[in-house]
Design a protein that fits this description.
The structure holds two protein chains of two kinds. Chain A is built from 13 helices and no strands. Chain A is mainly α. The mean pLDDT of chain A is 83. The model of chain B has no long low-confidence stretch (mean pLDDT 81). Classes of the chains: A mainly alpha, B alpha/beta.
């Protein structure tokens, strides 16, 4: 027997309310400043470098994203800034309702829990998307002014896909933060757990991947070990994100393993391929299609886990 | 019944709807005011109500009208645009009741509505609850303050270990628990009062519990007769006890229960 009514009833109300909460909150103000500062710093640093380096580069505009002075290009900055901001927005989504004792009142209105949870997630994601789109536009705008060359169609397309991927990447961490906010009643515990997991996945896990790969790969073939290591590393969303943007933003990268081998002093040469020749956008996408799907699937998986836990939870005050 | 707790077993019907299969229909008809009701502190009273109204799915115009009249009804119209964080506990409870009014619920479930309120706020709140009744709302109220409950409730149910053990109007409960016994406490001064009181029809025993305190056990309400007896004896009446309160019925019930338990054990 089906339950009556639509699970989306009240979804719009929840999204609007949460969005207005987010947008008027102090966190949003901090996010806005972060966006401005990040855009200014990375564009400035990138321009400095681009000016020195090259006039021949056909994908000059994309260098704005990938190359910046000093140790931190924009993509590296985003790969740890985005999780931080997502967790910052998401760690108290559900448990703050518990602690304010509003949850039982909201849920005694004629809506399903689905609407509340999805509404909160969508509103959080929309907030993050607003921030990321603003950052993206700022960088492109500043780049236009300072470089003085308009970007080509393919560059815009690649930059746009990069933006979408970044939003999905934010979604993974938001879903994770929300899961913890469902699991833990205390907002501080949830924040700490989410941050802890983030630190583990981005810093410790890549270090651990190597010894584990050594252990579980039966024969000592270096290629096999590297393969296992990469598979293990991909459990961290940041690894997936880095692989995707490396390929999407750089048309000369034709394999996700290229950078890894390059780091080890190896060059991967496919038969018949011209090294460093750019590949079309569609081919780039095909290379990282698995990773993109992985990010989306991760988001959905985390959200569904949270959803199941939330459905069974006792919410009486 | 509102889907706030997970279902373990059994079935239920709320105004003819199955809360498992038709939770929205149930929730549309039932209003809930939890113990220590919470609001979004950063929002104004009206905004809090507006959010709930949107969740209920009211249209814009209807929403504003209902919110206005509900807030007026509970006496919060003047503070509608103040943040809820500045509200006292009594005001929060009243805002919670306003929400139930706005929802036009058929059933209102109130969990300890008066706990933690000062006496004046309690009286005001009970007045609003009584008004709910006039709006054809059935009010389900749980409370430990039995005196208060007695003053607003039509029927009372006592729970023990999750089961209803007693249910009915207060006089019905009194009869069930105390049997035919009506204890009456009298504080009076006068010559030979004890014998006079013992002769009042219906009185079974009279006990002198203090210099001018008497406890009568009667098989009906003998208070008017007892007063007349005291006056006729030329005595001075200081005080006469009320009918056994709900609290007394409650205590007596659980005393009986534990006595029985003791007997079973023996």
């Amino acid at each position: 027997m089906r339950r009556e009514g639509s699970p989306w009833q009240g979804l719009g109300a929840v999204v609007l309310k949460e969005l207005s909460d987010h947008l008027s909150s102090w966190r949003m103000r901090i996010l806005e400043w972060l966006v401005v500062v990040v855009a200014a710093v990375t564009v400035y640093a990138a321009i400095q470098q681009i000016k020195e380096a090259t006039a021949e580069d056909p994908f000059l505009f994309l260098r704005l994203f990938t190359r910046a002075g000093g140790p931190l290009p924009l993509i590296a900055l985003l790969s740890f800034l985005v999780p931080l901001v997502s967790i910052g927005l998401g760690f108290d989504l559900v448990n703050s309702e518990h602690n304010q004792r509003t949850l039982s009142r909201v849920l005694s209105q004629p809506i399903y829990r689905d609407a509340l949870l999805l509404g909160k997630f969508l509103a959080g994601l929309a907030t993050l998307a607003i921030g990321l789109v603003a950052l993206w536009l700022l960088i492109i705008g500043l780049g236009l002014i300072m470089l003085g060359i308009p970007p080509g169609t393919e560059e815009v397309a690649r930059a746009f896909i990069f933006l979408l991927v970044t939003i999905v990447y934010a979604g993974v961490w938001l879903a994770l933060a929300m899961l913890f906010s469902i699991l833990f009643r205390s907002a501080a515990t949830a924040a700490l757990a989410a941050l802890g997991l983030w630190l583990f996945l981005t810093i410790l896990w890549p270090l651990l991947a190597q010894p584990i790969a050594n252990l579980i790969t039966p024969n000592g073939d270096i290629l096999a070990i590297l393969n296992t290591q990469q598979i293990l590393a991909r459990f961290a969303p940041s690894a997936l994100f880095n692989e995707i943007v490396a390929v999407v933003l750089d048309p000369s990268v034709r394999s996700t393993q290229q950078s890894m081998f390059a780091a080890m002093g190896l060059v991967l040469i496919e038969r018949g391929a011209i090294p460093d020749a750019p590949i079309p956008l569609l081919q780039s996408l095909l290379v990282v299609w698995g990773q993109i799907v992985g990010l989306v699937a991760g988001t959905i998986l985390l959200f569904v886990t949270g959803y199941i836990v939330f459905q069974r939870q006792e919410v009486r005050a | 019944m509102l889907g706030l707790s997970d279902i373990t077993e059994g079935t239920a019907r709320v105004v003819g709807f199955d809360p498992v299969r038709e939770p929205l229909a149930v929730k549309r008809r039932v209003g809930y005011l939890p113990d220590q009701v919470g609001f979004y502190d950063g929002l104004t009273a009206a905004d809090n109500m507006r959010y709930m109204a949107r969740l209920i799915g009211l249209g814009r115009q209807e929403r504003d009208e209902r919110i206005k009249s509900a807030l007026e009804h509970v006496g919060l119209a003047e503070v509608a645009d103040r943040r809820v964080s500045t509200f006292s506990r009594g005001m929060r409870q009243r805002l919670g009741l306003a929400e139930i009014l706005m929802k036009d619920a058929q059933i209102a479930i109130l969990d300890e509505p008066t706990s933690g309120l000062d006496p004046l706020a309690t009286v005001e709140l009970l007045e609003i609850i009584r008004n709910l009744k006039k709006h054809n709302v059935s009010v389900l109220l749980s409370s430990h303050l039995l005196e208060r409950v007695q003053s607003v409730c039509d029927r009372v149910a006592l729970f023990s270990g999750g089961d209803i053990v007693l249910m009915g109007t207060v006089p019905e409960l009194r009869r069930q628990v105390l049997g035919g016994e009506f204890p009456v406490e009298i504080e009076a001064e006068g010559e030979g009062l004890r014998d006079r009181l013992a002769k009042v029809p219906g009185v079974r025993t009279v006990e002198a519990t203090g210099p001018r305190h008497f406890r009568l056990l009667a098989d009906r309400d003998v208070r008017p007769e007892a007063v007349v007896a005291v006056i006729e004896a030329g005595g001075r009446l200081y005080q006469i006890s009320d009918l056994p309160s709900l609290e007394m019925i409650y205590t007596r019930y659980f005393q009986n229960l534990s006595n029985e338990g003791a007997r079973h054990a023996a």
